[in-house]
UniProtKB/TrEMBL annotation:
GO molecular function: lipid binding
Protein known as: Fatty acid binding protein 1-B.1-like
Pfam families cross-referenced by the UniProt entry: Lipocalin_7
InterPro entries hit by this protein: Calycin, Fatty_acid-bd
Organism field: Astyanax mexicanus
Length: 118
């Protein structure tokens, strides 16, 4: 998928200005493995690899873009996975077999990323 970090999203993650500039044109690849209600999500952005494993409805340690680990519970509603990390609501929706939409919301700031299967 293509990931373009906007200034608004970067500010919500408290990223330094130099990382905001570097991140604007970085592409990332997401791999999602599912076994029943257990998920493993691996996001590779440049040389950084972020791996989060969780079971729907159970508390898990989830790593943020800044590397911070936060305890939270991922819930599943139909074809959507929902979680809130530090006040940011993340909704990941499998629109069809080839399209994934992730929406991050903090107050009136909304960041939407669409990923296509490769």
């Amino acid at each position: 998928c293509d990931l373009h970090i906007t200034e608004a999203l970067a500010l919500t993650q408290c990223l330094p200005d130099d990382l905001i500039e570097k991140g604007k044109d970085i592409k990332s690849t997401s791999e999602i493995e599912q076994n029943g209600d257990h998920f493993k999500v691996t996001v590779t952005t440049g040389t950084k690899v972020l791996v989060n494993s969780f079971t729907v409805g159970q508390e898990a340690d989830l790593e943020t873009l800044t590397g911070e680990k936060i305890k939270s519970v991922v819930m599943k509603e139909g074809n959507k996975l929902k979680v809130t990390l530090k006040g940011i609501e993340s909704v990941t929706e499998l629109v069809d077999g080839n399209t994934l939409v992730n929406t991050l919301t903090l107050g009136n700031i909304i960041y939407k990323r669409t990923s296509k299967r490769v």
